[in-house]
């Protein structure tokens, strides 16, 4: 029972990590909280459904993040860059409005009924782990999620571009004086962030259902993760996503329906203890 | 006898009595409105518009006085409505006692939340307030609380007794509840104006400008903002109680992000430094949402409105006119 729960928690955490790290990365670079991130994840899930139905799941897994990276270019060039002089909260609200519009367009196209995606045949089976049958697809989500975050960590910590990203997040003015092109980095990070959201959207299809409220549910969870982790702290967000995944999964089993309240209780509890959030490593605020 | 032109000083000394007289006339004339509208769609639109307007006033007040974006005002609005409905249904209280109890519950909740969220940065404040409204939406829809909260269908109730001299059952009539909504809007707007021009208001704005300097100057910067937050939560609670009594229903939709967004939009469009603007904004948005809602586009409208308002008039619809007037004055 416990090993199964731990694996389930890791699968949920992987999705949250992909979403929250993208959100924290954009915040670090642009000081913008992208309230439309949930809608991008929703577009990813619905596009994943279309491509998986028309072609196959693997094609969706490859094409959707690429398409979403294209949406990231649009986000950067049409929204974040022209509005970089605007106040943080104004831009956050604009992205929120964009999120509502995107979600409504998706609902107009696909309708309001929940949809489901079938997992590819090779992932549809289950394996025995500690004597219990466990779905391979959930293991796949965990592996993809954790591999992406490890790749992100390696990229941020070992490459020159990663070092520039950390530098701009830490001290934007000094980095700019040192000749780092924040606009070029921001374009890259926007693409990465939306591609991660798209990937999470495709992965969620066969795991949970795809429904019209998924954008709001995810953006609220991401906000909780980002605030608990310390606004702008990438490692804080990753750690908070991990904790939240575990709390939710174990809560669902042991506390049943009360578990939907756990993220909020956790948020309030941590803020009473540390108003700045967990805030590991670099924080943008 | 020669006429003496009014000096600027006498003109300015006349300004407030004239404005006060005009306000009193509008306030009194408002009570005659149901006679002209005779219930129906327009009356219901105005009632809902003023309720949104009161929430917009709350958002505008905290934004203007404290520089905080309260993107979850629906939490206090819905909490008060549910508290009132539960106190009537489960505890058998009269409508007036339930309304008083609901406001007490909302006041306490707003104080406790304020004590926590005031300590965080403005962006995190915005996100937490929104999350708390979602928490409430989930809480009232819990299946195990269905007997108390009505679950996802909402909670119907039948109020008894009188509320401020009006029979509680009569409040379900759009025309009869109007005096209560109209008076509450004026009282809340008036109180916000008085607080804004008081020493407390000046202190709040000084904290907004430079919290650190105020702290170094020996002022407490925490509790004034907590009290402002509590007051705003209570005012939103009044709107929630009235809405519950006017419809005989408390529903999870009262906590929705769209409720909070519309209040925020009305506040920003009307201008956060004014009291008339947010109320007018509330009425206009309620009308627009009702029109677009009939076509099935209410959320799409809200989304587009957020983008356009934040892009073009983030300081309110009258701000460009004020700038023009200032430029004209200088010229």
Automatic annotation (TrEMBL), chain A:
Its main location: membrane. Keywords: Amino-acid transport, Cell membrane, Membrane, Transmembrane, Transmembrane helix, Transport. The keyword Transcription regulation does not apply. It is found in: Cell membrane. It comes from the Bacteria. One of its GO terms (molecular function) is transmembrane transporter activity. GO terms for biological process: amino acid transport. It is a multi-pass membrane protein. The chain crosses the membrane at residues 6-27, 34-52, 58-79, 91-111, 136-156, 185-210, 216-247, 254-273. GO terms for cellular component: plasma membrane. InterPro entries: ABC_transp_permease, BCAA_transport_permease. Belongs to the binding-protein-dependent transport system permease family. LivHM subfamily. This is Branched-chain amino acid transport system permease protein.
UniProtKB/TrEMBL annotation, chain B:
Its main location: membrane. InterPro entries: ABC_transp_permease, LivM-like. GO terms for molecular function: branched-chain amino acid transmembrane transporter activity. Keywords: Cell membrane, Membrane, Transmembrane, Transmembrane helix. GO terms for cellular component: plasma membrane. It is found in: Cell membrane. The keyword Cell membrane applies. The keyword ATP-binding does not apply. It holds the Pfam family BPD_transp_2. It comes from the Bacteria. It is a multi-pass membrane protein. The chain crosses the membrane at residues 14-33, 45-63, 69-88, 95-117, 177-202, 222-242, 263-288, 300-318. CDD domains: TM_PBP1_LivM_like. PANTHER family: ABC TRANSPORTER ATP-BINDING PROTEIN (PTHR30482:SF17), HIGH-AFFINITY BRANCHED-CHAIN AMINO ACID TRANSPORT SYSTEM PERMEASE (PTHR30482). This is Branched-chain amino acid transport system permease protein. The lineage of its organism: Bacteria, Pseudomonadati, Pseudomonadota, Alphaproteobacteria, Rhodobacterales.
